[in-house]
Amino acid sequence: MEHPDAEAVFRAVQARMPSLSLDTVYRTLWLLRDLGLLLTLGPRRDSVRFDANLSSHHHFVCLKCGLTRDFESAQFDALRLPRAVRRLGRVVGTKVEVRGLCDRCQSGKRQSPRQKSGGGT
Questions:
Q1: Which residues contact 88 (CB under 8 A, 6 or more apart)?
Q2: Which is more confident, 110 or 71?
Q3: CA torsion sign, 95 to 3 to 50 to 64?
Q4: What burial class does residue 74 get, using C-beta atoms within 10 Å of its C-beta: 0-12 exposed, 13-18 middle, 19+ buried?
Q5: pTM for this one?
Q6: End-to-end CA separation in angstroms for the chain
Q7: What is the pLDDT of residues 79-113, one digit of tens each?
């Protein structure tokens, strides 16, 4: 399953709806998140990625190309939070994000998204 950022959603929809603005895409994605219909991945950075998979799952993220893939793990689902975390506030959910290099990047066959587009998003 893909984990697009707002700009990728905008590019995908723009062909069908040329009058659509990037601002509208951002507002719609955040509304869907607020309604519980999307999740966001990781902390707010230059670009927030959205996830339509609401089932219990975790993520593998390639540090080189940004490839993000879902995986399930009963062991990760059963992790107990340290007492120090529970003292910080009420936890409503946890996700494990595994970071590394995907098979293609390890073999040097994959370009990063920035290299493919000639710049950043």
A1: none
A2: 71
A3: positive
A4: exposed
A5: 0.54
A6: 21
A7: 888 999 989 999 888 888 898 889 999 988 655 44
- Looking at residue 29, its amino acid is L
Contact at 8 Å (CB) between 4 and 49? yes
Residue 16: HSE in the Cβ half-sphere, 13 Å Cα cutoff: 4
For residue 114, the SS3 value is helix
What length is written for the chain?
A: 121
Using the Cα atoms of residue 14, residue 15, residue 17 and residue 18 in order, give the sign of their dihedral. positive
Which of 21, 23, 20 is CA-nearest to residue 31? 23
Give the chain's domains with CATH numbers.
6-117 (1.10.10)
Q: How far apart are CA 70 and CA 106, in angstroms?
A: 19
